[in-house]
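Human: I wish I could look at a protein chain and see how it folds. This is the protein in question:
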Amino acid sequence: MRIYIPSTIPLLDAACHAGEFGPAPQTVYAVTPALREWFATADDEELEYAAMEQAARASVGLIAADPTAPRKRVVVACDVAAIPPADGTVQLGDARLELHVVVPWTAVAAAHLDGDPAVEVVSKAAELWDVAHGDTADPGHEDAVFALDSCEGEDLLWYATQEIPDFLAAVGPRGGLQDRTG
């Protein structure tokens, strides 16, 4: 089964070096029965995309929590043998699952990251993350939700598993291009 792990560039770098995503439990996203029921007419590809988009949204929250992380969403696609069933508290359309195991780096199928043009949109969404998830009576709530929704207009770039270490070496754990002259 394909799962999507929301991440940041520093977290991706740490997982690459550790050889695993963890610790458990961790929130991941997948095509759940609740997602399948909500998008009843969608095909498998559309459902996978919807699950990945929910993971990308969660990545914004991780970026908001780390002011030093580059303002680029990261979603890591992994293939795992089994996913525990949802506990029944999942809302209709929700792709979120709690995974009670670490995910080995060998399960990584690809990474999806924002390109440079998305940095401004993602930065704004991360800045307003707490407002978007707070009290809907907050006068800035609608602007915050709009900023978060605007991220969905930015396409994530695809990196094959073998490209991820080279990408991380080029940008470093904080996402800036490394000086390769020395």
User: Anything to note?
Assistant: The chain is about 40% helix and 20% strand. Helices lie at 9-18, 33-38, 44-65, 119-127, 129-132, 141-150, 164-171. The first strand starts at residue 2 and ends at 7. Residues 117 and 154 are 8 Å apart (CA to CA).
